[in-house]
Specification:
Radius of gyration: 24 Å
CATH class of the largest domain: Alpha Beta
Number of helices: 10
Strand content: 15-25%
Distance between the termini: 62 Å
Helix content: 40-55%
Number of strands: 9
Number of domains: 2
Order of helices and strands: HEHHEEHHEEEHHHEEEHH
Shape: elongated
Largest sheet: 6 strands, antiparallel
Structural class: alpha+beta
Length: 273
């Protein structure tokens, strides 16, 4: 049968092909913008071309388009491309509308479901830790840290994971102005010993506590980094000692994975160096 609509068929193909190319170009442009982070805030076209496996001539076209729309600027001295003011405006809009707990809640729920334990989201507030969000498991456990409540920075995984990434001058000020309360015999109250513990936490990427605040409870905490590489929150899995100790290694890996997911959600892009 003779096709009586050859033009329409060809036209539809052309539209689909155009849309596919447009989407690919958009993805490439977003890949370029996503390459920037606190450690890598300027790129040459050559570096981006090699890093993203895009032909140099094509990379130049993407960069010039992004520059035209003010997503990027070109430093006239270094000839490197840097992020433009439009992204600053968009970032301010996003940060003003988003709350940390709301943004990370889906990850907290998923972690609680996967681990079968209670999950806490904490942040530093002054000289204390505040619980921003708490997701309960079906198997409840009595914990001191309820949503909205606070604890000192030195006790428990949900606190130590935040304290571990503070500057030394912050630690020195904390030790001078605060009494390190001993909640249980496992609570670390010696500043020298606590500093060693915090160094260990930074090295391994997670904090562990065994009955430091609540008798019979074990906690594991992981950091959440923002787009500047700063720790803005901690995610903690907590549960009964006898149950948690049976799956510690599994929980640590799971928690670190979710910490990385939450960090990416906050715009964190670790350096590839």
């Amino acid at each position: 049968m003779t096709n009586i609509y050859p033009y329409n068929r060809n036209h539809s193909y052309s539209v689909r092909n155009f849309m596919r190319k447009s989407i690919n170009s958009l993805e490439r442009g977003l890949d370029i913008l996503s390459s920037f982070n606190s450690q890598n805030d300027a790129f040459s076209a050559q570096t981006l071309s090699e890093q993203l496996n895009i032909p140099l001539s094509t990379t130049y076209r993407y960069l010039e388009t992004l520059k035209k729309k003010s997503f990027l600027v070109k430093n006239q001295v270094t000839k490197m491309y840097e992020l433009g003011f439009v992204l600053l405006v968009l970032g301010n809009v996003a940060s003003s509308r988003m709350k940390l707990g709301e943004v990370l809640l889906p990850h907290l729920k998923s972690l609680s479901s996967s681990s079968g334990e209670t999950v806490l989201l904490t942040a530093v507030r002054g000289w204390e830790v505040v619980c921003i969000e708490r997701v309960e498991t079906q198997r409840l456990i009595k914990l001191t840290l309820e949503k909205g409540s606070t604890l000192p920075l030195h006790a428990g995984a949900s606190s130590k994971i935040l304290l571990a990434y503070q500057e030394n001058r912050f630690l020195d000020s904390l030790f001078k102005r605060s009494v390190l309360i001993k909640y249980t015999k496992s609570t670390i109250t010696n500043p020298v010993q606590l500093k060693k513990e915090l160094k260990k936490i930074r090295k391994q990427g997670y904090a562990f506590s065994d009955q430091e605040v609540d008798f019979g409870a074990v906690g594991i905490g992981a950091p959440v980094f923002d787009h500047k590489g700063k720790v803005v929150a901690g995610i903690t899995v907590a549960g009964p000692r006898e149950r948690m100790n049976k799956k510690i290694s599994q929980l640590i890996e799971m928690l670190k994975m979710y910490g990385e997911k939450a960090s990416r959600e906050m715009g964190y892009r670790p350096s590839k160096l």
